[in-house]
Automatic annotation (TrEMBL):
Name of the protein: Serralysin
Organism: Pseudomonas amygdali pv. dendropanacis
GO molecular function: calcium ion binding; metallopeptidase activity
The UniProt record lists the keyword RNA-binding: no
Highest taxon listed in the record's lineage: Bacteria
Cellular-component GO terms for this entry: extracellular space
Compartment(s) of residence: Secreted
Domain Peptidase M10 serralysin C-terminal, first and last residues per copy: 13-165
Keyword DNA damage: no
Annotated TM spans: none
């Protein structure tokens, strides 16, 4: 991630790099093998620099517990590894798809589409009008600030079932 920052300070940010809607991980449309995962045993290590569009981190094929963080200058733990996927400073990735483990999905200030998949997931949308889907399992939807879902940017929980899912938590 620091390499991307250093190059951009010298030459400026290339906003035409992957400026359309891009998927990283499974079902990748990034055009580079190192951004792709093809099986549950794939080892992915990359930092995302993306010029725009509606972008997605798709780690749906992994069975391990994962932490997927969509905030810029953050690291995610995917596919059984720690800190192996990062999002460069200044980049907005809008969407994330978890796998069959007990995943933690952390959104950012954009309107995120977060899908937990199977497992007992914890989903935190953050700011923006988010779409939150837990999938199978006893999922927990977290709202950490009053700005996480308000009249101007309402979050939508797509599949909460009382008595089956975990909880909706306000902190």
């Amino acid at each position: 991630m620091d390499d991307i920052t250093a190059v951009q300070q010298l030459y400026g940010a290339n906003m035409s790099t992957r400026a359309g809607d891009t998927v990283y991980g499974f079902n990748s449309t990034a055009g580079r093998d190192f951004y792709s995962a093809t099986s549950a045993s794939s080892k992915v290590v990359f930092s995302v620099w993306d010029g725009g569009g509606k972008d997605t981190l798709d780690f749906s094929g992994f069975t391990q517990n994962q932490k997927i963080n969509l905030n810029a200058a953050s690291f995610s733990d995917v596919g059984g590894m720690v800190g192996n996927v990062s999002i460069a400073k200044g980049v907005v990735v809008e969407n994330a798809v978890g796998g069959s483990g007990n995943d933690l999905l952390i959104g950012n200030a954009a309107a995120n589409d977060l899908k937990g998949g199977a497992g007992n997931d914890i989903i935190y949308g953050g700011g923006g009008a988010d779409s939150l889907t837990g999938g199978a399992g006893a999922d927990i939807f977290v709202f950490g600030a009053s700005s996480d879902s308000n009249r101007a940017a309402q979050d939508t929980i797509r599949d909460f079932v009382s008595g089956q899912d975990g909880s909706i938590s306000f902190f």
